[in-house]
Amino acid sequence: MIGIGIANATATSSYLSSQLPSSANDTILKKVLKECADKYSYAGDALQASVQDLAVESYDYAYMHIMAAADYPNGCHNAFKRYPGLAYPPEIARREKGLKQICDVVLGIVDLLGSVHQLLDNHFHYVQGVAWDPLNKYVASLSSDRTCRVYINKPQTKTKGFEKINYVCQHVITKTEHQLADDSKSSKNHLFHDETLPSFFRRLAWSPDGSFLLVPAGSYKMSPASDMVNTAYAFSRKDFSRPALMLPGASKPVVAVRFCPMVFSPRGLHSAGFFKLPYRLIFAVATLNSLSSNAQYLAVSSQDGYCTLVEFETNELGLPIPSAEHKKDLFPENKSPIIEKREDIMIETPVNDGFRCLEFDDFGFGKNGFYAEALNLFRDMIAQGVKVDVLTIPSILNACGGGGDLMKVKEIHGQVVKSILFNEDVAIGNSLIDLYAKCCLGDSEKVFQNMHNLNVVTWTTMISSYGVHGKGENHSGLIDQGRVIFSSIWSDYGFEPCVEHCACMVDLLSRCGHLEEALGLAQNMKLAATASIWGALLAGCLMHKNVKIGEIAAHHLYKLEPRNPSNYVALSCIYESQNIWDGLTRTRTNMRELGLVKTPGCSWITIAGMIHKFYQGDYSHPSTKVMCETLDDMIKVLALPNVFKQEH
């Protein structure tokens, strides 16, 4: 039918074009015929586009293109009406009527194919994620209005043998309640990021058995005075009023979650975990990821344009359970699988080795930002005489480093020194080099010199450590030492310097002002320079106010990371330092057009084992007023000492 319409429109366009020579003396008629020929040509193009839309089941676009095709003849008719002396030819009127009839028939068919059964318009902003319950009872949606809505299907009466769906909003997930210190009041905080989250989607997902709803884009406060942390939430099917599990610790907002479509048999002690399930559920929390239907591959893509395919060994995730078996084990409707208290996990599941404790840490402590809890758990392990293995030490070291407390790092280092096994482990040595470099380069060098087993990560970490401490031309000795180490990777040890090595060397050169050399290394390396390399060069240009090389680095980063606001902010600061106001205005305009927002600056200090963080423009700290008054007094003492003495 659409083919007939295309033939009609094409033939009419050709017919109108053929009439142009006979109207050469009538310029007005020639102009109108030319306009009509174009209109029918556009109608044919629109119908052709609708064929492509229908091929991919894009019924809305097909409907729009067919409506446009039906409307183009009206433009031709109106062109004749603009000139009263011109009569609308009967042949064109006949062709117009035929095309419109064809479009009406096709529209009726498309309307049946892609009709809207129900409009769920409860959200107040963009809907960025929808997930269908595998048990066909619920539909969940997530919006940038900071709400997650769960709809339940309450079918209406049957019509012509079919049961008409009718989804009704049953749960609105938006805020969580915190009890204040005096136990007399409570405050509510939003669970999700607002519309400023730089993403076009928030992909939520149901578990394959329908027992859990996993929701991304979380933004959670552990207490009213604490900082927001990025997280994802898992809600039990039996209780949408509060999250059953929270997965914090992501450095950037979580925008996509995905369950593995298969379920697996329990692994020993793992059967007594957070949830009383007869099988294990596995999910991924990442950006733009996909797990194959046979659980053998995980595809992960990132904003830098790279796509990684992770392959799992046979039964690495566990022994798969056939879907027919796990469905009959789904927990009863009147029984909740949630263990109410986290403390129960350690009581009900005795810790007999380091592996079990590491698994507990993976769920919610060190890797998820709860550094103090991870260290306390480690101390409990030592007190109970639990054997600590080589997997536990790097995890707890990273937790201590994340907390920014060097004394805690040295406490764990003491446990490493006591054990010959740990002292020979290369992963533990690498972690110590990296953590000590944040405070004292000398301690990093001592660890490096005492290591007997070195790998690629060791060299990369040490080069990066020199880069962190190379802050000016006076550190030329560190530059030379870094060059020697970089060259020795190939000449002495036979390794081919990888992207990470080059990034560390570029960082070292850039920090010390050797920007031309750093640019040459980035442009002439065998592998393609990544965002980490150009980012290090841009940071060096910002430090040394180099506009020319800074623009080169920034434009490479715009291609690799088009939505990273840090790159635009860095170039803006370079322009501002050199009073290049047109460049500054242009860069800030680009940021506004892309909807990018500058990340607020942050500083912190550790007092009595507690970390106090301060963000730019944030006055939520309980001692803010006292600190500001003290700072004002300090400024007065330095600027106007005599006036300060008189006031006090």
List keywords for this structure.
four-stranded antiparallel sheet; 5 domains; WD40_repeat_dom_sf; WD40/YVTN_repeat-like_dom_sf; alpha+beta; 21 strands; Butyryl-CoA Dehydrogenase, subunit A, domain 3; 648 residues; Pectinesterase inhibitor domain-containing protein; extended; single chain
What secondary-structure arrangement, pairings included, does this model have?
Blueprint lengths: L1 H17 L8 H29 L3 H23 L8 H24 L13 E6 L5 E6 L4 E6 L4 E2 L2 E2 L3 E7 L1 E5 L6 E5 L14 E2 L5 E10 L6 E9 L8 E6 L5 E4 L3 E2 L18 E4 L2 E3 L5 E5 L5 E5 L8 E2 L1 H6 L14 H6 L5 H11 L6 H13 L8 H12 L2 H13 L1 H4 L2 H12 L3 H10 L5 H14 L6 H16 L7 H13 L3 H10 L6 H14 L2 H14 L4 H13 L3 H14 L7 E6 L2 E6 L8 H16 L1 H7 L1
Antiparallel strand pairs: 1-2, 2-3, 3-6, 4-5, 7-8, 9-10, 10-11, 11-12, 13-15, 14-19, 16-17, 17-18, 20-21
Protein model, in words:
It is built from 23 helices and 21 strands. The protein is of the alpha+beta class and 648 residues long. The protein folds into 5 domains: 2-113, Invertase/pectin methylesterase inhibitor family protein (Butyryl-CoA Dehydrogenase, subunit A, domain 3); 127-328, no CATH class; 351-361 and 372-447, no CATH class; 454-601, Tetratricopeptide repeat domain (Serine Threonine Protein Phosphatase 5, Tetratricopeptide repeat, Alpha Horseshoe); 605-647, no CATH class. The protein has a 4-stranded antiparallel sheet, with no helix packed on it. Strands 9-10-11-12 form a 4-stranded antiparallel sheet, with no helix packed on it. It has a 3-stranded antiparallel sheet with strand order 16-17-18, with no helix packed on it. It is extended and about 100 Å long. 32% of the residues are buried.
